[in-house]
Write a structure and sequence with these properties.
Blueprint lengths: L5 E10 L2 E11 L4 E5 L6 H9 L6 E6 L2 E3 L4 H6 L2 E4 L11 H6 L14 H15 L14 H12 L6 E5 L7 H16 L3 E5 L3 H7 L2 E6 L2 E7 L5 H9 L17 E10 L3 E9 L3 E5 L6 H9 L6 E6 L2 E3 L4 H6 L2 E4 L3 H5 L6 H4 L16 H15 L15 H13 L5 E5 L7 H16 L3 E5 L3 H7 L2 E6 L2 E6 L6 H8 L9
Parallel strand pairs: 3-8, 3-9, 6-7, 7-8, 13-18, 13-19, 16-17, 17-18
Antiparallel strand pairs: 1-2, 1-4, 4-5, 9-10, 11-12, 11-14, 14-15, 19-20
Helix pairs in contact: 4-5, 14-15
Length: 502
Amino acid sequence: MSTPVVEMSGVAKRFGGVVAVRHVDLELFPGEVHALLGENGAGKSTLVNMLAGVHRPDAGTIAVDGTEVTIPNPRVSRSLGISVVHQHPVTFPDLTVAENIMLAGPAPRRRTRLLDRGAVRRHAREALARLDVRLDISAEVKLLSAADQQLLEIAKALDADTRLLVLDEPTAALSTREVDRLMEIIARLKADGVAVLFVGHRLNEVFALADRVSVSRDGATVVSGPAHEFTPESAVGHMVGRSVETVFPKADVELGPVRLEVRGLGRRGAYTDVSFTARRGEILGLAGLVGAGRTEIAHGLFGLEPADTGEILLDGIPVDIATPQQAMRHGIAYVPEDRQSEGVVLEHSIAFNLPLALLERRPRFGLLSPRADRALAEDYIERLGIRTSGPDQLLGQLSGGNQQKVVIAKWLATDPSVLILDDPTKGIDVGAKAEVHRLVSELAGRGLTILLISNELEELLSVSDRVVTFYRGAQGPGFDRRPFDAGQVLAAMTGQVADVHI
């Protein structure tokens, strides 16, 4: 085997009293995709930041082409041929594609020191041609799809001298088709001899791409080897120390009468003629590709984007839901897809966040009660097993899975009868998914009616009691017998089945 492009040996990093990385060994070879797996808190992002020059290791060595190097800042990282696409990339939405690519490096200027706009456009075309993708370089970034924005980030990161491309959770916001497109690009880079470090949680993507796999747990490398030596089940075992059967737990629950019924619900340009029922204690899965209308239906039920037609019934009684306040009064709660921008305030504590959905119930001129807020936080920290130093810890300091538990707790505090979960495990690791789904299963066991949206089909089919499919805003077949046939559900999600049998 050739010399590694980059080799990390015994790397460690602390932040105050917290050990983020204890001991990591990693070899990245040219023309090879190396997958890095691990739970949130396993040190993956810290490792990425050390390669990017954001953090410097406290111990261990990093070598490029066999020579030990120091990476004090991102500029040096780029000069060594390392390009990093971070988990939360930064774009400038009001600038064009070409201008965003320009800002990734020194801006080309004329002798007069004025910006050379012709050179900016040429550089953008070259960067996109390197990936063999077509984007309108004059288009504002805010007009691009999530997939195209992700490709833009890769184009920004890559240059002609890139020898290692690091992708930290690149597919979190992408649909299945968009992921396939990204995989084709990664395969092309691999064929060109670029080493790729792929940090991900979706095991089907990992094993479709990876040549080698390394697993980190508690800040240390626990196993590393060729991908064919692993299975998804064994990888999960290394990550969390338990079998894959515990990742998507589903308790048997005796279902009660119909609690929620939707008849002919529609909203112009989003979805049309949607009808289904959901019973007490039932987890109803809403399956579909990104853009199928599932989130818009959730918004309609919660009053964020009220439906134009149809009716909603709770316990057989028609209700009007034109605002979230009305939805909450009827016992409907909604956990949004983007927890960081819509679900919680990361700059504030757990005790601050948990009562936010209860503000309307407080007396109009009443005073906030810090003591009551802390008691509420302490109660849900214990009930949901939120891993934290206490109610005063900032949300931004929690792992993704624990942030998601706080979002769910915020809405459980409203004592809902219907809970809508929109992609509740997006961007969290396998172990945290198990905890969230165990919680969902327990809530159903207590009699809550749960509508579950997920972009991961395995997750949806494992957890749901029934599944309703959607394709381009239209309702498709329903499936009510477990275990579900994944092929049939996928066919319905992609419009290959026309009959409806709810």
